[in-house]
DUF1129 family protein
Amino acid sequence: MKVTVKELIRQNNEKRKLLTKENQKYYEDLLVYIRANLSRDERATEEVLLEMLDHLLEAQKEGKTAKEVFGKNPKELAEEIIASLPKESWKRQSEFILEIVMTLFGWYMIVSGIGPLIKKEDQTIYSGTLIVSGLLLIASLAMFIYFVVVLLKKEAFQEQKKKRTISILFGFLIAGLFALSLIVKFAIQPFGASFEVSYYTIFGLGCFLLLAAYILKKMREQNT
């Protein structure tokens, strides 16, 4: 039976606990940097990472360190590994993006719709405002994913002090983006054609999108 990607990740998580502190840091920096390249085939990535981990564990039994096994330049090694990995198919990348978008909109609609649901108040939706809000939400998601990937790559192979600094800067950036989204939300006056929706519609659509995202995720996992 073919081992799933989820199982490969689970095995990796368990086996990493057997590494020494020094070897664990070296390997996990490699792991984070390589996994941050979302355009590479997920299965191939996890198989290579697990193979490297097994090799390192065997070498560790002989008293060798990760630097002795893989070299003193882990970033260069990571780049070579990434270059050798096959690219993820457009179909799987599209499915992943769709899953993330549905999850984002699902939670957004649940949060937006829970108030009217409790109060049992029908809502007036303005088409122009709806489109702009949707585009801003997608743009924010794209920026968030981009900066998460950048952060992961920046933090890899850095000293702990530098990692904390990068994380703090990233936190300020996310807070700034969140504040900007609130400003935009309240600054834009409702516009466009309007229509009424029942008090449970928005909340219900949010639940539907989350369910659809969950089903899509399970389907992706079964096919890897």
Observations:
- The beta strands are 123-126, 194-197.
